[in-house]
Design a protein that fits this description.
This protein is mainly α. The protein is about 75% helix and about 0% strand. It has nine helices and no strands. α2 packs antiparallel against α3. It starts with a helix and ends with a helix.
């Protein structure tokens, strides 16, 4: 958050720092850590997660009035963050294509990667879930959120959270052969 606030504030034409809208800094303090954790989990890279989270808060700053007037500002911000995460995935894909075109030979397999097959299989299985089930499983079991928090975040009812979690667990069991 230290990096976020000075970047957003900017300067007026006279060189004076701009004031943040009322409540924005409190919003950042209240939600930055959790949103960054979510981004780290989805992207698997701290630097990319920090960048996506920064982008999301910058968009929230620019659309602060719209965010505050929304029926569920947290759900709207979550959608903004999801869009920023998608942008990060796209950047990675473009970079990967460039690297593939410039690579002379494929790299040899990392021998340590073989011991990590199970976590990769679980991650791949989670990524194959429908969007809402993937979101619920990630928030509930990987990030430790409570059902009522997930319901608010995703703007769905508490029973719907439970239903998505149940269906996702079953799909994971089937996919992983458990």
């Amino acid at each position: 958050m230290r990096r976020l606030v000075p970047e957003i504030r900017g300067e007026t034409e006279g060189g004076e720092p701009c004031a943040l809208p009322p409540g924005f800094e409190d919003f950042v303090r209240a939600h930055h850590k959790r949103m960054l954790g979510l981004a780290r989990h989805r992207l698997g890279d701290s630097h990319d997660a920090e960048e996506a989270t920064q982008d999301a808060f910058l968009i929230a700053y620019r659309k602060w009035d719209t965010l505050l007037s929304a029926q569920n500002p947290i759900a709207l911000f979550y959608r903004i963050l999801q869009n920023c995460l998608t942008d990060q995935y796209r950047r990675r894909a473009r970079l990967a294509r460039r690297e593939q075109l410039t690579a002379d030979l494929p790299e040899t397999e990392d021998p340590q990667a073989l011991t990590l097959e199970t976590p990769f299989a679980i991650t791949e299985a989670i990524d194959q879930l429908p969007t809402r089930q993937r979101e619920v499983i990630t928030l509930k079991y990987l990030l430790g959120w409570e059902n009522h928090e997930i319901a608010v975040m995703l703007d769905i009812s508490h029973p719907t959270v439970s239903l998505h979690a149940k269906r996702a667990r079953q799909r994971l069991r089937d996919c992983l052969g458990l």
